[in-house]
Design goal:
2 copies of one chain form a homodimer.
Chain A: H1 2-6, H2 17-37, E1 44-50, H3 54-69, E2 73-79, H4 85-97, E3 103-106, H5 116-120, H6 134-141, H7 152-163, E4 172-176, H8 183-192, E5 196-200, H9 207-211, E6 216-219, E7 237-240, E8 244-246, E9 249-251, H10 256-262, E10 265-266, H11 274-292, H12 295-303
Helix pairs in contact in A: 2-11, 7-8, 7-11
Bound molecules: NADPH dihydro-nicotinamide-adenine-dinucleotide phosphate (2 copies).
C-alpha cells in the first residue's frame, strides 16, 4: 500500500503526482487482471526508439518497468541512429497489422534525418496511444468529436486537476507553450472542459500579466524556474510540466519554492506531472486493448 | 470595375468585405483563365444540400452564381429532406472518386436524422475545401503540419486582417465562440500567426474584461449586437462574423455603430466577413484543382 504510506505528512498544497499515479496504477493493474480473467490477453505496447539518446533510453526503460509491473506485455524496438525513415515506417506498419499489439509509441525526438510527422502519421489511429495524430488533436477541440486517445502528458495534467478537486469549468486557464505534445492539446482539453483558455508562447509580449489572470496555470515551455511568484494570482492552481536540468538537478518551469507561497495547489518537479505521463500511456493502451479484444462486448454478453 | 467604383468615399475604419472579396475574385478569375489556357479543365465544385431550408438554398444559389462568374464548373446536388445518411454518404463517395471534381461541400446544417460528423468525415481530405475534417483542424494548430485547406470563414477573417495591414504576430486576440467552423479554427490560425489568443464561449464569466484586452476581436457567437463599445480597447480591430436577423434585417454580433467609435478598424454586417466566405471557398477549390491537374508541375516543365 505505497499510496497510503506516502499520504502521511502530505502538504495539502502539493498535487503529488507520485500518489495520484500510484492510485491510477493500482486501478489499471486490477483492470488488467480482470481482462485476463475474462480469457483475454494482456495489453501490449510497442515502443520504437531510434538512436542512443541517454534520456530517451532512461524513459523507455521506465516505461518497460512500469508496463511489466502492471501486467502489460511490452515490446521495445531499439534501433540504431542510422535507421532510415522508411525502415522506421516499415516497422510501424508491421505492428499496425499485428492484432496482438494495442499501442505503438515512437519515442521523440527522432534523429534529424527522419521526418517526425511522416513517421507519426503512419501509426494506425486505433493504436496511436500517444494521441499525436492531427485527427486526435483536431477532435480534442471540436464539438461532437471524440479523440480516440488523449495525449498522455495533457491527460495527466487534467487528471491531476480532477483528482485534486479543482474545478475547470468557468475558470480562466493560461497555458504557457503551444507544442504539439503538451501546450496545444492541454489548451484544447481545458477549453472543452469549459475553461476560458489563453495560450502563450515565445511571441507573447506580456506573459506575467496573462498569467496573473489565471485560476489555472499550465507551464510547458522548457525554461527553468521561469514562472515567478509575482505573476501568480493568489490561490491559483499551478501545474508544472517542465523538466529542465540545472546543475545536474531536475527542475520545472516554475519557481516552485516561491510560487508555492501564493498558489493554492501546485505540482512539484520531480514528482508532479512526470510520473503521470507513463501511467496515462498505459491507461490509453489498456483502453485500446479492451476495444480490440471486444472486452466491453464480452462483459455485456456475460451480464445478459 | 465594381471594386474601383466602391472605393470612392470609403471610411478608412471600415474593412470592406465587398471590396476585398472583389479584388480576390478578380485574381481568382485570372488564375482560372490561366489554368484553362494551359489546357486544363475549369475547377469544379460540388455542393450537396439536403432539405429545403430557405437560407441554405439562398446560400447555395449565391455560391453557384459566384462560381459561374469566375469560370468554375459547379454541380448542385439538391436532395430532399428525407434522404438517408447512407444515401448522402454514397453521393459523397461517388464524387470522391470523380477525378473531374476538385471540391465537395456539404451544406450545413444537415437535417437532424443525419449525423454531421459521419458525413463530413467521408469527404476525401484532398477535396474537403471547407476544411472541416479534424485532420485539417488539428493541422491548423500543430507545428510542422500544414492543413490541406483552411476553413473558409476563418480564412476570410485572416485575409481581411492581412489585406488591411493589421499586424497579427505579437498581438492579443480574443475570439468569441469556439465552433468547429469559425471560432476554433480562427483561434488556431491566429495562434499560428503568433498572436496570443484567448477563446471565450458561453461559459466564460467575464467576457467584457477579456475583450477589453484585445488588439484583435473576432466575434462569432450568433448573438445580435452582443459586443459593446465599453468592452473595446481604444484602437482595437474588430471582425464581426455574426449573421443575425433582427426585425427582418441582417446584423452582426457587434454593436457596430457604437463600437466603430473606439475601434481602429471594423467589419460591417452585411458587407464584411459574409462576402469573403464564398470567395475563400472558390480559392480553396482552385488550389485543389491546380494540384489535381498538376498545374504547378506543368508550369515548372514549361519554364525548364
Ligand atoms: N512531464 C512530462 O512527462 C513531460 C515534460 N515535458 C517538458 O515540458 C516542457 C515543454 O515541452 P515541449 O512542449 O515538448 O517543448 P517544446 O520545446 O516543443 O515547446 C516549448 C513551447 O514553449 C514556448 N516557449 C519557449 N520559451 C518560451 C519563453 N521564454 N516564453 C514563452 N514561451 C516560451 C515555445 O514557444 P514557440 O512556440 O513560440 O517557440 C513553445 O511553444 C519541457 O521542459 C519538457 O521537458 C514535455 C513532455 C512530457
Ligand atoms: N459570415 C459568414 O460567412 C458566416 C457567419 N456565421 C455566423 O457566425 C455566428 C457564429 O456561427 P457558428 O460559429 O456557426 O455558431 P455556433 O452556434 O456553432 O457557435 C456559437 C459559439 O458562440 C458561443 N456563444 C453563444 N452565445 C454566447 C454568449 N452569450 N456568450 C459567449 N459565447 C456565446 C457558443 O458557446 P458554447 O460553445 O459554450 O455553446 C459557441 O461556441 C452566427 O451568427 C453565424 O450565422 C457562421 C459561419 C459563416
Amino acid at each position: 500500500m505505497s499510496a497510503a504510506t506516502t499520504t502521511t505528512n502530505v502538504d495539502p498544497k502539493i498535487i503529488d503526482g507520485r500518489i495520484i499515479s500510484a492510485d491510477i496504477k493500482k486501478d489499471i493493474k486490477i483492470q488488467v487482471e480482470k481482462l485476463i480473467a475474462q480469457g483475454k490477453r494482456a495489453p501490449c505496447l510497442v515502443v520504437i526508439l531510434v538512436g542512443d539518446r541517454p534520456d530517451s533510453h532512461t524513459y523507455v526503460r521506465n516505461k518497460k518497468k512500469t508496463a511489466s509491473d502492471l501486467g502489460f506485455e511490452s515490446i521495445d524496438c531499439l534501433l540504431p541512429g542510422t535507421t532510415t525513415q522508411q525502415e522506421v515506417i516499415d516497422i510501424v506498419k508491421k505492428y499496425n497489422q499485428d492484432e496482438a499489439v494495442d499501442g505503438i509509441l515512437v519515442q521523440l525526438p527522432l534523429p534529424s534525418h527522419i521526418n517526425e510527422a511522416s513517421v507519426l502519421n503512419e501509426i494506425d489511429i486505433s493504436k496511436d496511444v500517444d494521441g499525436f495524430n492531427p485527427i486526435n488533436i483536431g477532435s480534442l477541440g471540436m464539438r461532437g468529436r471524440n479523440a480516440t486517445f488523449q495525449p498522455c502528458t495533457p491527460r495527466g495534467c487534467i487528471e491531476m486537476l480532477d483528482r485534486s478537486g479543482v474545478e475547470i469549468a468557468g475558470k480562466k486557464a493560461v497555458v504557457l507553450g503551444r507544442s504539439n505534445i503538451v501546450g496545444l492539446p492541454v489548451a484544447l482539453m481545458l477549453m472543452n472542459r469549459d475553461a476560458t483558455v489563453t495560450i502563450c508562447h515565445s511571441k507573447t509580449p506580456d506573459i506575467p500579466s496573462q498569467v496573473k489572470q489565471a485560476d489555472i496555470v499550465i507551464a510547458a515551455i522548457g525554461q527553468a524556474r521561469f514562472v515567478k511568484k509575482e505573476w501568480i494570482k493568489e490561490g491559483a492552481v499551478v501545474i508544472d510540466v517542465g523538466m529542465n536540468s540545472v546543475d545536474g538537478k531536475l527542475c520545472g518551469d516554475v519557481d516552485y519554492v516561491n510560487v508555492k507561497e501564493v498558489a493554492s495547489k501546485i505540482t512539484p518537479v520531480p514528482g508532479g506531472v512526470g510520473p503521470m505521463t507513463i501511467v496515462m500511456l498505459l491507461s490509453n493502451t489498456l483502453e485500446s486493448s479492451k476495444k480490440r479484444q471486444n472486452y466491453y462486448l464480452s462483459i455485456y454478453i456475460s451480464i445478459m
